[in-house]
Fold these 4 entries.
Entry 1:
Amino acid sequence: MHNRTLGRGTDQAGGTGKSEAGEHRFWQSDDAMSDTRPVPRVLTELVRHRTWAKCLYALLGLPIGVAGFVVTAVTVAVSGGLLVTFIGLPLMAVTGLASSRIGSGLRTFANRLIGADVPAPQPLRANPGLCWGGSARG
């Protein structure tokens, strides 16, 4: 009959099951320790939150990106064709603003879903040049 317990009581040697520091010792057979193998990393990656977040980003990002490209391409083509009228130039400006907003939304989507750190682009500043009343040397 074995008198070994898990931490409390007495073990075979007649001890109390506590170490000298007062911590409980847990008994395990040597066979159990030799049979354990670490789980391969391939299997542990399948259950991580980050893996599933990246899969969700890939699945949702593709149709969103295709839709953003189609909207941008169509509006650039239409506004390019209408540049000879008064509608073309404002439509081209709206296309640029809409594309910027789409890109901002996709950047926020990536930052929140997969924890990416994609910074916002620097704001555009007008550089004085020949057309804007400045000099060519800047």
Note: The two ends are 95 Å apart (CA to CA).
Entry 2:
Amino acid sequence: MSPHLVVLPRMFQLGPMKRDPRLQGLSSDHHQALVLARTLLEKQGPFSHIDPHELGHRFDVELEPHFLVEDKWLLPPLREAGLTALCDRFAKDHADLRRLISLARVGDADSAVSLGKRLHEHVRFEEREFFPACEERLSDEILSKVNQAAPHPTLHVKD
């Protein structure tokens, strides 16, 4: 096995999922989110694998832009489609993750571990429930806007 190959434990593996190409930009962000979650869950002592400032920076650069696109482009039309419970869970997850990072970035190691656990759970929820609902219920126009707004937009997607 290559020393650069990262094999995620079974609990972190999502399995093969077909995703609308216009959501693949957001979906691909989940790999780094799972790597960060695993790093936080593997800690031996307070921030032995990642210090609070690095964690805050990674959240700001890797996760917050992703959250903002979802909050702006996916959440409102899904609420309009009547998926209230799904949207409530989604919004609560984002609020909880933002609360945990605010504590972890000032050195609260327990919050960092909780962040890792919740981040892992949230990614699984998005891939298994939230994104399939988006694919089923959102218009081509909305999905195309998501693709353009995504922090890592999918290339070569024809609208």
Note: Confidence is low (pLDDT under 50) at residues 1-14, 155-159.
Entry 3:
Amino acid sequence: MGQTKLDLEVTYFVSGHLRVLYRVINERGNELPEWGGYWDLTREACDTPQAQQVFTQLDNLARILGTYLYSNPVATPHGTLSSVKLPLTSFSLTSARPDSINLYAERFVKSVALDELSPDHNRLVGDILASLESETWREIRRRHAKLQGIPLTEPEPIKIFISYRKTKKAHAEAIARRLLRERIEPLWDEWRIQAGDSITEGIDKMFAESRACLILWSQDSPTGNWCTKELHTALSKAVRDKYRVIPVRLDNSPMPDLLSELKWIDLSDWDSQFETGMREIIQVVLGVEPRPR
């Protein structure tokens, strides 16, 4: 199909229903109608970790957008003007015009410009569109394989363990979401360990499944018992196995002696260095061979 791209129109109903309409555009800018279509997914029908995280992202975005949804000012019996907060029922956005999001509360519609959102919330919107683009290409491949009567084989995702201090939870989540865009499966305790689970067993299992470890180092890391344990586990595994340890500095604190001989990725200036640093992380991770089946 050459150098093609997707235009997506995404509608999310907060009840847990996602619809994605897509158009396939060739390198000349022409639409390929035979490749276009739509797909639906409900929260209950998610069959991959990537799809489950898309719904988590959509729910997070819905909570954020709900704070912008107020009715137009109306007169009160006392002669003053007042706005009423409305319950968000759905929202829609497009990849072709990613400058605003339409919010719906029954018949009420409001458009919110992306420049009204914070940089982190804008990054969340970008992560959602990128994840849905990846899932849409997967749907196109599935349909194409079905038409040709051949089975669709998906490569096993590369799994990477994320070690971090709880004070840097937002940073770890942003990195995990960005990895999902590349179909790299982040093994992050917030997504893998549930209430009542053994933390030790959960971490041991994630280390066993992973082929690399991101050490997110910050000023608070030396005082975190789990950070210290995970650092030693990752370095021991690197000595025994073909396992890569990737240090990432989140602030200006010095890296520990145990990591001094490893090249680290600098994300201390978070907003300006995030994309450059993530591209380097992704390049390194994709160079790690997946675990044999």
Note: Residues 46 and 159 are 19 Å apart (CA to CA).
Entry 4:
Amino acid sequence: MASINDIEIFIEKEKIISSNTISSFPTENNKAISDNKEQSPYEIQVSGLVVGTNAFESLQGLRKLNDNSEIVNYKGRNIFNNFLIKDFDTEHDNTISNGFKFQMSLKQVFIAELEETNINFNIVKPQEVNPESNIGKQSLARIPDDEDSSEFGLSVFGKTLPSVDDLKAKADAEEQLSKTKQRNSYQDEILGSFIGDERKKKSPDVANYIPGLENGGGYF
């Protein structure tokens, strides 16, 4: 006699369905190409009856397995494990006085197993940088503050840079020299223009006269 989880049943017909899923893709010449095959879970379709003094208890047990979606093992002409009841139909007519007829379909399921893994959450410390490194020769001269920056010069690669006061004095001297050059150039231009005008007058007393000498004037 067949059974589902130790519930005895009488099987009249047992059908095993084994199918595969095959993927296909159309091509330019209107032909489909299949490149993958995936086996589908087994499915069992059975029909039979349950009779006897324990028929009502067997009916309640089968309904409980279906309602609670419990994993069942089937034993009949074939033996299968890890199935779920997909459909469960019963018939109650006058041909059976102490039992019922039923039709049932079961489908195979695959159960995933959980595995615990310990994860180390310790923070990885960054790699320390070597403080000792060769960066060339450096001067140990003191870098002046804002208050004493005018008294000290900086030393870079063995050479002393001028102080702030030296830079200011140099800038003032260059500015004074530029002004003097401009002034002398202007005087030379005025003097040359004056001498040229006087020479044009062809005056013998004035043509060779150059003003501005220490004795009040002169001739050349």
Note: Confidence is low (pLDDT under 50) at residues 148-152, 216-220.
